[in-house]
Specification:
Elements lengths: L2 E6 L4 E6 L9 H12 L13 E5 L13 E6 L6 E6 L3 H7 L2 E7 L7 E6 L2 E6 L8 H12 L6 E2 L2 H4 L7 E3 L8 E3 L4 H7 L1
Parallel strand pairs: 1-6
Antiparallel strand pairs: 1-2, 3-4, 3-6, 4-5, 7-8, 9-10, 10-11
């Protein structure tokens, strides 16, 4: 778990990076804060392309340790105007860590509508998916799991996130494939929707 994925939505570029040595001891909330402190201008509008959304697995994610499958989602918050982190359970952190990734940094803004980031053992690809626009989390998860298989984890937002409303959460699928786990603090769903 020593890699980061950097997704530049504006350029539709994906870059795999080694975790910087200074961040080797960080996971979860500490990693989201370190990335945001180092890379986001404190004066940036939270819903602008200059903000970054960071998804970071905890240090023990991917292991068999009980309760280790937490995923931290951080950004400059549209609610507080400061760095905010919200964490969530579900299957995403375990899957991400087992693929060797400590976190994902999402920057810029997709200009061509909704996109899906597909992360697999051999890398990642960004796919445009206009048909997912305005769907709820349950419909989105059902469609993506039907396509990628029941072992996939889905991280999604619904219409409230797409509208970048600051009360929006980020949903993560549970073991049954239902997007019933939510990172609900700080408007992280609005930041994801702004991307």
């Amino acid at each position: 778990m020593d890699k980061l994925l950097r997704i530049d939505l504006g350029r539709q570029m994906i870059k795999e990076e080694n975790l910087p040595e200074a961040w080797q001891k960080y996971g979860g909330r500490a990693l989201t804060a370190a990335v945001l402190r180092a890379e986001v201008n404190p004066k940036v509008d939270p819903l602008s392309p200059g903000n970054k959304l960071v998804l970071a697995a905890g240090l023990l994610a991917g292991s068999g340790v009980p309760c280790s499958g937490r995923l931290s989602i951080g950004a400059k918050s549209p609610l507080t105007g400061t760095i905010k982190e919200s964490n969530v359970g579900g299957t995403a952190a375990q899957r991400l860590a087992r693929l060797g990734y400590r976190g994902i940094i999402i920057e810029g803004k997709a200009e061509n509508g909704p996109a899906v980031l597909v992360v697999k053992g051999d890398g990642a690809v960004l796919e445009l998916r206009p048909q997912l626009a305005k769907l709820g989390n349950y419909q989105t998860a059902a469609q993506l799991l039907a396509e990628y298989g029941p072992e996939a984890a889905v991280i999604s937002i619904g219409p409230v996130g797409e509208m970048a409303l600051p009360v929006a959460s980020v949903a993560v699928t549970n073991r049954e494939g239902l997007p019933s786990r939510h990172a609900g603090r700080g408007g992280m769903g609005a930041v994801m929707g702004s991307k």
